[in-house]
Amino acid sequence: EIVLTQSPGTLSLSPGERATLSCRASQSVSSSYLAWYQQKPGQAPRLLIYGASSRATGIPDRFSGSGSGTDFTLTISRLEPEDFAVYYCQQYGSSPPNTFGQGTKLEIK
Amino acid sequence: EVQLVQSGAEVKKPGESLKISCKGSGYSFTSYWIGWVRQMPGKGLEWMGIIYPGDSDTRYSPSFQGQVTISADKSISTAYLQWSSLKASDTAMYYCARQGVLAATPFGYWGQGTLVTVSS
Question: Does residue A64 contact residue A75 with C-beta atoms inside 8 Å?
Fold first, then answer.
């Protein structure tokens, strides 16, 4: 089973700043099958990024993903008030389970 | 429009059985994998398993294998998650979510969640 470790656990930033979230895998993620999700309180998660760097439909271009192998990054170039939420990475390329990271909470400073 | 509509909140006692549902619409139900994700109170997301309704191919996380059963009825475009004997530790929000046509695809669409509370 691939274990995903996200850092930091909590990130405190102000609107307009740049956010960089990390996801590290315990072994290589095949074919960059790595996704990022956003979850706001009381809501279901929403897919932001798949294939490590492709934005899902309707996702603003301030969200970008990068990385390969075991190290992946989600970058939000300029934070909007609605971006403060919890973010999860997920690998979906290996045999089950398609594990999630433990999440990074992005909070307003 | 793709939609996944889950059944309503449940309150159960330990030892009781339960089956929650997830009805898909707006797409070919038999052609896409559907999965279940657990979120315990104040915690993160846990991948439980997926099913391909077209042939009922089902894959479980080792953590949930034997603890739950995932099934689907393609005649009514509905996936299910069931327990034979609930425990207090099963208290959580459960989401169904749709992947793509291949097993190696992310969850692009999500249901609204079903809150299961198990308490004596």
Answer: yes
Residue A40 contacts B where some CB pair is shorter than 8 Å? no
> How far are the Cα atoms of A49, B24, B42, B53, B56 from residue B75, in angstroms, in the given order?
32, 11, 36, 10, 12
Query: Which of B44, B45, B106 shows the shortest C-beta gap to A92?
Result: B106
In angstroms, the first-to-last Cα distance of chain A is 36
E-assigned strand segments in chain B: 3-6, 10-12, 18-25, 34-39, 45-52, 57-60, 69-73, 78-83, 92-98, 109-110, 114-118
CB of A21 closer than 8 Å to CB of A102 = no
Beta bridge partners, A71, equal: A24, A68
> B67: distance to nearest CA of chain A, Å?
15
Tokens for A8, please give them: 């930091």
Whether residues A44 and B112 touch (CB distance < 8 A) is answered with yes
| Rounded Cα distance, B64 and B54, in Å | 22
DSSP state letter for B9: P
A88/B45 Cβ within 8 A: yes
A57 → chain B, closest CA residue: B108
Q: What is the nearest CA distance from A105 to chain B, expressed in angstroms? A: 11
Identify the sign of the CA torsion B1, A41, B49, B99. Answer: positive
Per-residue pLDDT of chain A (109 residues; tens, 9 = 90+): 899 999 999 999 999 999 999 999 999 998 789 999 999 999 999 999 999 999 999 999 999 999 999 999 999 999 999 999 999 999 997 677 889 999 999 999 9
